[in-house]
Write a structure and sequence with these properties.
heterodimer; A: 210 residues; mainly beta; Elongation Factor Tu (Ef-tu), domain 3; four-stranded antiparallel sheet; globular; B: 116 residues; six-stranded antiparallel sheet; 1 helix; 6 strands; 6% helix
Chain lengths: 210, 116
């Protein structure tokens, strides 16, 4: 069975396990998802499954997107994501819910988009040390220092770290334990934090490293 | 969105009455030591309360042997708490009684508040 779902981060709380320990969990509204396309090696050169999540009004999609979904008589969906899977064992048009995919105690990887931080300096963005705070220094507290060598090479190498836009990156968190599955309300609770703001779209996959 | 989280929170423990800072309480704690299970009792003053969903907690301060103050924080919704008994209320004028930490002996007493 395909180990994958698309969801929305709801927020964090803590729950108590049977021994009475408090566990920090992130709640994710996961699914229901629809299989919008199954990619096969014969047709597409690789095998994967495309899932769709969150129904919306038809007028919010382009006619191309609508036609793609109409092929399998699926209602208009906002998000489409692809999952690589050799033997997906799903058929196009099929509805997938949390209860069918994930069970308590298993481990998942979660891909999200981190919170945007705007334009940030090197100290915050790459943990530069900054300059000395004392001994007569002024205006050097959070300076990045030198970016490169001198006359040779006479330029800054591409990809050098420095100030710039931070956040809004794709971030994957691996090996989060499933602590809560509510099939009725499509809720999934995983131990620990998940990238992105509340309401952000996250992709949940089976753990690679387990 | 956040009301989804509220529905996941534990229901109120019926054996814990409404606590106020300054209350002298006895907390009965369920403890598991290997195969043994027993109940531990902690008696002291509530010096702090925090309301934060499932993280709601309160701190009990008691004076242990040699006059050493011991503070312990309990999660209000924890299933480990069997029950809490309020022995007396105190007349207090602030929400956090951190000033008790610097006081010993007579000056650390709180005036009792009688409620009908």
């Amino acid at each position: 069975m395909l180990k994958g779902l698309i969801g929305k981060k709801v927020g964090m709380t803590q729950i108590f396990d049977e021994t009475g320990s408090a566990i920090p969990v992130t709640i994710i509204e996961a699914g229901p998802c629809y299989v919008t396309q199954v990619r096969s090696p014969e047709l597409d050169g690789y095998s994967a499954v495309q899932l769709g999540f969150e129904e919306i009004k038809a007028k919010r999609l382009t006619s191309g997107q609508l036609g793609h979904l109409k092929r399998n008589n699926i209602n208009p969906l906002r998000f489409l994501r692809e999952f690589r899977e050799k033997n997906p064992e799903v058929s196009e048009g099929q509805k997938i819910t949390v209860g069918e995919v994930f069970t308590l105690g298993e481990y998942v990887d979660i891909v999200g988009t981190s919170k945007g931080k705007g334009f940030q300096g090197g100290v915050k963005r790459y943990h530069f040390k900054g300059g000395p705070k004392t001994h007569g220094q002024s205006d050097r507290n959070r300076a990045p220092g030198s970016r490169s060598s001198g006359t040779t090479p006479g330029r800054v190498f591409k990809g050098s770290r420095g100030a710039g836009h931070m956040g809004m990156d794709q971030v994957t968190v691996q090996n989060l334990k499933v602590e809560l599955v509510d099939a009725e309300r499509n809720l999934l609770g995983v131990r620990g934090a998940v990238p992105g703001p509340k309401g952000g779209v996250v992709v949940i996959k089976g753990a690679r490293k387990q | 969105m956040s009301n989804i989280i509220q529905t996941l929170e534990a229901t109120k423990n019926q054996n814990i009455p409404d606590l106020k800072t300054g209350d002298v309480v006895r907390v009965f704690l369920h403890i598991k030591e290997g195969a043994n299970e027993r109940t531990q009792e902690i008696r002291g003053t509530v010096i702090r309360k925090r309301n934060s969903g499932n993280n709601a907690n309160f701190t009990v301060r008691r004076i242990a042997s040699n006059g050493i103050g011991v503070e312990r924080t309990f999660l209000l919704n924890s299933p480990r708490i069997e029950k809490v008994i309020v022995e007396r209320h105190s007349h207090v004028r602030r929400a956090q009684l951190y000033f008790l930490r610097e006081r010993t002996g007579k000056s650390s007493r709180l005036k009792q508040k009688f409620t009908s």
